[in-house]
């Protein structure tokens, strides 16, 4: 696997980095001048310094989060105070200092398999998304709600919006069908 950096203006590749224990990358997070990757099989987290050109990396967490090979690290997100929250498929999630890589605390315990995780600054909550469940935690790591009975199928992500962001939104569906979320016919 490799991590690529693109120019936002012309979408050209600026540079890339590989061979930094970034194999089988399935998770990516960003804080300050660092980008973090995680691989599902190795459960290793690598830190890339994206302030330099070409950017460098240093692997600072080895076989983090899990003690078994069955549930490996799956995803990560940045906490409210800028630290790195590394989340396994199932089990205890851990918080690391994003600038030093030092372990800070255990934060979340998930009883379900986790595919993705999102931190929402809007309501200061964490959303852990599984194939058929969404678990919601507050910023202290306490579970607020566990949504498991909504007939979810193969969930792999979630986005949290403020109401004001949606009011004037235009939704485009390129598959040729209509996306009618309220049954109004438009």
Structure at a glance:
With 186 residues, the protein is mainly β.
Note down, in words, how this protein is organized.
- It is built from 1 helix and 14 strands, in the order ββββββββββββββα.
- With 186 residues, it is mostly beta strands.
- The strands form 4 sheets. It has a 4-stranded antiparallel beta sheet with strand order 3-4-5-6, with no helix packed on it. A 4-stranded antiparallel beta sheet has the order 7-8-9-10, with no helix packed on it. A 4-stranded antiparallel beta sheet has the order 11-12-13-14, with no helix packed on it.
- The model has no long low-confidence stretch (mean pLDDT 78).
Helix proportion: under 10%
Supply the number of helical segments. 1
Give a quick account of the main beta sheet: strands, pairing sense, barrel closure. Answer: 4 strands, antiparallel
Q: Radius of gyration, Cα only, in angstroms?
A: 18 Å
How many runs of DSSP E, i.e. beta strands? 14
Shape: globular
Strands of the largest sheet, in order across it? 3-4-5-6
Topology as a string of helices (H) and strands (E): EEEEEEEEEEEEEEH
> Uncertain spans, ≥5 residues at pLDDT below 50?
none
Structural class: mainly beta
């Amino acid at each position: 696997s490799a991590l690529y950096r693109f120019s936002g203006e012309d979408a050209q590749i600026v540079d890339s980095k590989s061979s930094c224990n970034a194999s089988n990358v399935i998770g990516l997070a960003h804080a300050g001048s660092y980008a973090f990757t995680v691989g599902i099989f190795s459960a290793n987290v690598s830190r890339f310094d994206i302030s330099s050109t070409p950017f460098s990396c240093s692997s600072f967490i080895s076989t983090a989060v899990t003690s078994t090979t069955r549930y490996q690290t799956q995803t990560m997100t940045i906490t409210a105070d800028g630290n790195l929250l590394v989340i396994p498929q199932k089990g205890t999630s851990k918080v690391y200092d994003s600038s030093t890589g030092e372990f800070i605390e255990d934060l979340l315990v998930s009883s379900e398999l986790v595919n993705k995780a999102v931190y929402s600054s809007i309501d200061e909550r964490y959303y852990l998304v599984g194939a058929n469940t969404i678990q919601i935690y507050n910023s202290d790591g306490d579970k607020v709600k566990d949504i498991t009975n909504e007939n979810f199928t193969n969930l792999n992500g979630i986005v949290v919006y403020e109401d004001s962001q949606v009011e004037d939104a235009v939704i485009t569906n390129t598959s040729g069908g209509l996306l009618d979320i309220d049954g109004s016919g438009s």
